[in-house]
Design brief:
The chain is mainly alpha-helical. It has helices spanning 2-27, 40-45, 50-69, 74-89, 92-106, 110-118, 124-147, 149-169, 194-205, 213-237, 243-265, 267-276, 291-294; strands at residues 279-280, 283-284.
């Protein structure tokens, strides 16, 4: 009996590892075992490990920053780390964001938007969105690094994991509208069970244990609000989601996480300005109430 139980346990572990390798091969350029089993059904189940892939990429990015920052200034180390991020994922999520921006910005009907999103060429809307996104991400990361390396390293891991959980959770609550033959997310984005969603979210929130209850509460409220608004926007613009939308959701969630953390780091400075009436670029802040922004 004990042998059969051990065999069942080994098979279960091997099955879950295989699903993780499938998710890893789908979302990154990292090597996976050659004996990995593939099928459309297995790939569909692999979405449960979307956020776990983020934990791995976040750890690798944090490690790359530590290595670069030992002999380079922080801003250059961050830029190189961002390049590593693009290499790790093949700019998979950034490509999705750019495609979605081109599709929604360049057409007025759902069919035309979906057609544009399948085009491999990047347009004006996609290029502008991508440039702004990367510049904003770089600026926020530099701001976090200016506090200390711990702020930055924790933020990187949190953003990589939690943003993927937010994006992956959209699978469970939106219809899939793209052509399966041409979609970047085929057939991963077809369905998501409640247990798969629960595991995705559980892994996604794990890095929050390193933050205060106030930061956790704020982050979750902001991300839930974003998810709700983004979901409604996708239904209005596309009638559902595509693989590009998942990539866009990941990138936007990541930015929101960095923005929230930077806002909390600078909160004490804002309060000080409000209370003491400091001058900034020749303008007095006396009489302006900033407490409502941060309180």
């Amino acid at each position: 009996m004990s042998v059969s139980v051990n065999d069942l346990l080994k098979n279960k572990i091997a099955e879950q590892l295989n699903l993780f390798y499938l998710a890893l091969s789908f979302f990154t350029r990292l090597p996976v075992p050659k004996n990995m089993h593939y099928s459309e059904a297995l790939l569909n189940k692999a979405n449960r490990y979307f956020s776990l892939v983020g934990l791995l990429t976040g750890g690798l990015l944090a490690l790359s920053y530590v290595c670069f920052s030992t002999f380079l200034p922080a801003n250059i180390a961050i830029l190189l780390m961002m390049a590593i991020s693009l290499l790790l994922t093949g700019a998979f999520h950034e490509d999705g964001l750019a495609d979605m921006a081109d599709g929604v910005g360049g057409a007025f009907t759902i069919d035309k938007r979906l057609t544009i999103m399948k085009d491999s060429r990047i347009g004006t809307y996609g290029a502008v969105t991508l440039v702004i996104t990367l510049l904003l991400k770089y600026t926020l990361l530099v701001n976090l690094a200016e506090q200390d390396s711990n702020h930055l390293l924790l933020a990187i891991v949190l953003a990589e994991v939690l943003s993927r959980a937010v994006a992956g959770s959209l699978i469970s609550s939106l219809p899939y509208v793209s052509d399966i033959e041409q979609s970047k997310s085929k057939p991963l984005a077809q369905a998501q069970s409640s247990s798969e969603l629960a595991l995705l979210l559980l892994i996604g929130i794990t890095p929050l244990i390193f933050y205060s209850s106030e930061v956790i509460f704020t982050l979750l409220i902001i991300l839930m609000l974003f998810r709700s608004l983004f979901k409604r926007w996708l239904m209005a613009k596309l009638g559902g989601f595509t693989g590009d939308c998942l990539g866009a959701g990941q990138q936007l969630s990541e930015l929101l996480i960095y923005l929230t953390l930077v806002a909390y780091i600078n909160k004490d400075v804002v309060i000080e300005l409000a209370l003491t009436g400091h001058h900034f670029m020749g303008h007095s802040f006396t009489g302006y109430s900033f407490i409502g922004i941060v309180g």
